[in-house]
Write a structure and sequence with these properties.
Elements (H helix, E strand, L loop, with lengths): L14 E4 L4 E4 L5 H12 L10 E5 H12 L18 E2 L4 E2 L9 E4 L1 H11 L7 E3 L11 H42 L2 H7 L4 H8 L14 H47 L1
Antiparallel strand pairs: 1-2, 3-6, 3-7, 4-5
Protein name: Ubiquitin carboxyl-terminal hydrolase 11
Keywords: Hydrolase
GO molecular function, one term: cysteine-type deubiquitinase activity
C-alpha cells in the first residue's frame, strides 16, 4: 500500500487587491510538484477494487518521490528517475531478488496510481511486478490480466498528465506576458490610467464632496399635485363610462322603436 501523505494545506487567498493602485496581485500558484501530489492523492486508496491487483513499487523510489513533492525548498529539488524497480527485480537473471520485505523494500499501489507514475516518469522498459497480495514472492499475475488491468488506467493517466502539462504551459505564458506588460508600464501610467480610485479621490480633493447622489425628499406640494392628478384621472374615467351608458341606452331605444314599427305593419 502506498504511504499516506499529509493533505495539502488550505490555500490562502489567491488574490489580494492593492489599495494604492487598485490592481490585483497573485500571491500563490500551484507548482508542478503540488499538482503531481494532488493528482496521485486523488486516486490513492488503501484497498483495491474487484479484479484489481497490487503493483509493487520499491520503497526507495517512493521516498524520493515524496521528498520531491513535499520539499518546500525550490533550490534543492531532485526529481526521481524512471520507475525501474531495480532493487526488486534482477534483469540479468530475470527473477525477483531474495530477502525482500514488505514496507521496508517495496509497497503496493493500485493500477491507476501505477499508471500515473509510469506516465509522469516512465519505466525504462521495466515490467511491472504485480501480485494478488502484498507478498512479492506470491504467484505472479498473468501478463494478459496485467494488460487488461492497465488498459483503462493508462488512457486516463495520459489524458490527465497531458491536461496538467497544458495548464502549466498556459500559466507560464500568462506569467511571462504579465511580467513583460509590467516592465513596459511605468508607475505613473499604472496610477493615472489603470487606477480605479483615482477619479473619486480627485473629486473629493477638489471639493466635489461625496460621489454618491442624495435622495430627493418629497415635499407637501408634490403630494398635493399627485392627489390632483389622481382626481382628474378618476373624473375622466367616470365621464367615459357615462358616455358609454348613454350610447347603449340610445341604441336599445332605437331597436325597440324599429320592432314596434315592423309589428304594426305586419298587423
Amino acid at each position: 500500500m502506498a504511504p499516506s501523505l499529509a493533505p495539502p494545506k488550505a490555500p490562502s487567498d489567491d488574490e489580494s487587491v492593492d489599495l494604492e493602485c487598485g490592481l490585483s496581485s497573485i500571491q500563490h500558484k500551484l507548482t508542478r510538484r503540488e499538482m503531481e501530489r494532488d493528482l496521485v492523492l486523488a486516486f490513492d486508496s488503501p484497498e483495491l477494487r474487484r479484479h484489481d491487483a497490487w503493483f509493487l513499487v520499491e520503497t526507495k523510489w517512493l521516498d524520493a518521490w515524496m521528498n520531491y513533492v513535499l520539499d518546500e525548498d525550490d533550490q534543492n529539488i531532485t526529481r526521481p528517475g524512471p520507475l525501474r524497480n531495480d532493487t526488486l527485480f534482477d534483469r540479468e537473471e530475470f527473477r525477483v531478488r531474495e530477502n525482500l520485505q514488505s514496507t521496508k523494500d517495496y509497497r503496493g499501489v493500485n493500477p491507476q496510481v501505477y499508471a500515473l507514475y509510469a506516465e509522469l516518469y516512465g519505466t525504462d522498459d521495466a515490467k511491472p511486478i504485480v501480485r494478488w497480495t502484498l507478498d512479492i514472492y506470491a504467484v505472479p499475475v498473468m501478463i494478459d490480466d496485467v494488460r487488461e488491468m492497465l488498459h483503462v488506467p493508462k488512457l486516463k493517466a495520459r489524458s490527465l498528465v497531458t491536461e496538467m502539462n497544458e495548464e502549466l504551459e498556459e500559466k507560464g505564458r500568462g506569467l511571462e506576458g504579465l511580467r513583460k506588460r509590467e516592465e513596459k508600464e511605468s508607475w505613473t501610467y499604472r496610477c493615472l490610467c489603470r487606477c480605479e480610485f483615482l477619479v473619486p479621490c480627485l473629486y473629493r480633493l477638489l471639493g466635489g464632496g461625496p460621489t454618491y447622489k442624495k435622495e430627493k425628499k418629497s415635499s407637501w406640494g408634490d403630494c398635493c399635485n399627485c392627489c390632483k392628478r389622481k382626481k382628474k384621472n378618476s373624473r375622466k374615467k367616470k365621464g367615459k363610462k357615462s358616455k358609454r351608458r348613454k350610447e347603449e341606452e340610445d341604441s336599445s331605444e332605437e331597436e325597440t322603436s324599429s320592432d314596434e314599427e315592423t309589428h304594426g305593419l305586419l298587423a
